Amino acid sequence: MNKELTGRSVYAELISIGSELLSGRSLNTHAKELGGVLTGIGLRLVRDTTIPDIIEVIESAVRDALARVDLVFVSGGLGPTSDDMTREALSSLLKQKIVLHEATVKRLKGWYSRRGRTITSAGERQALVLENSSVLPNPVGASPGQRIDLSAGKTLFVLPGPPGEFNAILAEEIVPWLEDRYADVQPDLVRIVHTQGIGESDIVTLLEQAGFNPGEILLGFYPGRGRVEIHLTAGADKASDVDELCGMLRSVLADYLDPER
Ligand code: ATP
Ligand code: MG
User: Fold this and answer.
1) Quick one: pLDDT band at residue 9, thresholds 50, 70, 90?
2) What is the C-alpha separation between 246 and 234, in angstroms, rounded?
3) Which element (helix H / strand E) includes 134?
4) Fewest Cβ atoms nearer than 10 Å: which of 1, 15, 54, 210?
5) How far apart are CA 216 and CA 204, in angstroms?
6) 181 exposed, middle or buried (CB, 10 Å; 0-12, 13-18, 19+)?
7) Nearest protein CA to atom 18 of ligand 1, as residue
8) How far, in Å, CA of 30 to CA of 171, rounded?
9) Please, what is the Cα angle at 64 between 59 and 68, to 5 degrees?
10) Looking at residue 20, what is its pLDDT?
11) 160 pocket-lining for ligand 1 (C-beta < 6 Å)
12) How far apart are CA 29 and CA 24, in angstroms?
């Protein structure tokens, strides 16, 4: 963050757990999803850490994140297999026991019996949660999510790794809770100027020549395929400043505006 925007700021971090995310086997998609969702409600995802399934590494990553920010999201490593260590790591870090969540066991038993199968003890492992967690039902998979309220108003969310499950619990359980809890937080204003036929360094030169000064407004330059998107971001109370700055940008870059946008 090179600039502090106005308004109340609530910071979040994501810790993606899974050795396969580091070996090049799987593309980590959670930050994109979570970042989009949090930005939409005015919360700021400020760090995305990917770590292997190693208990000590998980413990220290979560401890460090909780020391920095109010909201920590942990994903992956909740399955029935021996390489899934997330619960054990959190139990050790937070000094909370791991308990069987009976309502989840019941749901899993129903799921298995509808398919003519009986749940195994490995299957039941997916219903294990931390003793002080609020269990967040998983509408599309086995392991539920968990919300763990900690001291100093900090909150830890624990989510399964498969993207469909991560996204469903986020949308159905977590977003409504965050919207309620942070109802006073306003999303930032974002205006976008689309240019074409000019590179970033030439844009900067034109802006410097015009004496362009963004003041408190955050500028982001995102080049790609012969075009550059310039994002202007500011707190919700800065609408007129952002509009004015956007107008100035458009006039300095008038010869290079993308006619299709
Ligand atoms: P399950 O109960 O299904 O085992 P889990 O919480 O234990 O879930 P993992 O075993 O860590 O999750 O991962 C399950 C699958 O989800 C793997 O194929 C993995 O590659 C994928 N996955 C995990 N984390 C991510 C991520 N951050 N982005 C994309 N895919 C992911
Ligand atoms: Mg994993």
Assistant:
1) confident
2) 12
3) strand 134-136
4) 1
5) 18
6) middle
7) 162
8) 13
9) 145
10) 93
11) yes
12) 13
